[in-house]
Amino acid sequence: MPRRIAHLLFRNPTNTGSGLPQAEPTRSRIWSRLLISALVALTLPLLGLGIGILQARWQLQHEADLSVAQAIKRLDQILDNGRQAAEAVRFRVGAPCDNNVQSALQWQVATVPFVRSVNLAMHGHLYCTSLLGPVSQDVGPQNYVDGRLLLMAGNTTTPDVPLLVVRTPVADGSVLSVIDGRYLHAALQLSVQESDLYFVVGKLHMDLSGNVSDTPIPYMDDAFTRRTSARHPYTIIAGSREGSIETHLFNYNLPLLVLTVLVGLLAGLICYRLLGRPSSPRATLRRALEAKQFEPFLQPIVDARDGRWIGAEVLMRWHLPGEGLIRPDLFIPMAERTGLILPMTRDLMQQVATVLAPHAAELPPCCHIGFNISAAHCRDPQLLDDCRDFLAAFPPGTVELWLELTERELIEPTEDTDLLFQQLDAIGVKVAIDDFGIGHASLNYLQRFTVDALKIDQSFVKRIGADTLSGHLLDTLVELATRLDIDLVAEGVETAAQRDYLRALSVRYLQGYYFGRPMPIHEFMPALRHHRNAVRDTVDHV
Fold first, then answer.
1. Per the record's keyword annotation, is Hydrolase included, yes or no (predicted)?
2. Which of 159, 331, 401, 404 has its CA 20 to 30 A from that of 106?
């Protein structure tokens, strides 16, 4: 036996406030739990993904900013060297391109880093170079950005090697310092993090592959930075193209994302389990009611004179999937305190009517069908409608509906309860006092309500033959019922001796394990047919 069921069966039956078993949820509640749990399970991964995207975007932007700053720092140093070489020979602008001038130009190329050649020009006309000596070529300042920089994909000497010309104006001429584009390319590659990086001079730009072109720079939407040097007229553009965030997440944040998914799944599972635990005993019973887990069990009531079944008492049982039947003393008191006993009884009456009404012709004449009711029912006007609906399910005169008043809670007589019992009597509903003789209100009920029968508690029946006092008490109860002209039903009959004793006292109806245990309602009709055949066979052999 599972530990939880053992705890339920052997704990104090009055302690029902926190130890009720949990009912299986209905399909709608399951879907609701699944939806909420799925939302919880998705929240953490989505939150982690959102944070990861923000972090990736920030990181890419930060790297773009850093790449631009580092690129400008390196390129400014390279271009400053070009200006330095130009400043060293500017006084030679206009001088003839003789060996001394050429030697001076070549000295700058040899001693100043990154400078590929130094050239002199007058009135927009190049006339002396460190590489070729005297030349003649137009080099108008209008081709230079801000008159100072010119980016080229190559020249006649090295057509496949980019170069950058740094122009330093001097009076009517200028000094042109040529920077090898490979140094620029190296500076870009050393500066870049994960961004795309472009060195822009006028309408031309150099990319990370060292190519110079005037094609549009690709759009960068994940990160973008654009900054112009403070010392030279060029711009650095850096950024990340579409898809960079996903790549960054996969490369750097994948373990974190996997962890958030696992934690999210765990949170969703915990949420599902917690939502499956009712927050109160009332919620537990409500869920069980919605799941149709309360089932009617019928225990036969027999005529003491010939042992024939004349009806049955309907007992409520809680069939909890996976754990079996739950004893009524573990949940009925709580159902009464929470008021759920009302819809539970209503559901029980509907189930009984649904199953037995199609077999009305096979039931005993005026078949006695008894339901237990409590004080809560007596304050509920709908009890009258429930009884009407139950009787209307059977052909007239087929069944006799009995309501058995329990004494777990005192019924306070009021004008409303008096009216209710009068209306019940008017539609033919019988009233019995359950467990008569042990409750504090039994005699009070006899005085106040119209009672049709008394049910002798099984504690008196068990002591039959054991002590003289029990016999006297039974004699007194029988005499009281005779004087009040009401029927008696003895509960808890388990032996033939008890049956014979009660029969001798003229107790009219008997009920107990001796005649039949409580059985699921779907077993009642087969059991009734079997009993009827057994009685017929007995009569035939007499």
1. yes
2. 159
3-state secondary structure of 309: strand
Residue 84, CB-side half-sphere exposure with 13 Å CA sphere: 14
One-letter amino acid at 13 equals P
User: What is the average pLDDT across 167-186?
Assistant: 91
**Residue of 235, 299, 249 lying closest to 458 (CA atoms):** 299
DSSP for 356-425, written as a single string: HGGGGGGSPTTEEEEEEE-HHHHT-THHHHHHHHHHHTS-TTSEEEEEEE--SS-----HHHHHHHHHHH
pLDDT, one tens digit per residue, over 242-274 is: 777 777 677 776 777 777 778 878 877 877 777
CA–CA gap between residue 114 and residue 83 (Å, rounded):
11
- Could you give the CA distance from residue 447 to residue 339 in angstroms, rounded to a whole number? 27
Residue 145 is classified by DSSP as B
Query: For every residue of 230-297, which 3-state class applies, written as one string?
Result: CCCCCEEEEEECCCHHHHHHHHHHHHHHHHHHHHHHHHHHHHHHHHCCCCCHHHHHHHHHHCCCEEEE
Report the distance separating Cα 149 and Cα 234, nearest Å: 8
CA distance 341 to 541: 47
CA distance 436 to 339: 24
Q: Is the pLDDT of residue 136 over 50?
A: yes
Give the number of C-alpha atoms closer than 13 A to the C-alpha of residue 125, restricted to the C-beta side. 7
Residues across the chain = 542
Q: Which residue has the tokens 């209710």?
A: 420
pLDDT in tens, 77-126: 999 999 999 999 999 998 999 999 999 999 999 999 999 999 999 988 99
How many C-beta neighbours within 10 Å does residue 534 have?
11
Handedness of CA 306, 312, 318, 321 (dihedral sign): positive
What is the pTM assigned to this prediction? Answer: 0.56
Q: Tokens 């730009």 sit at which residue?
A: 205
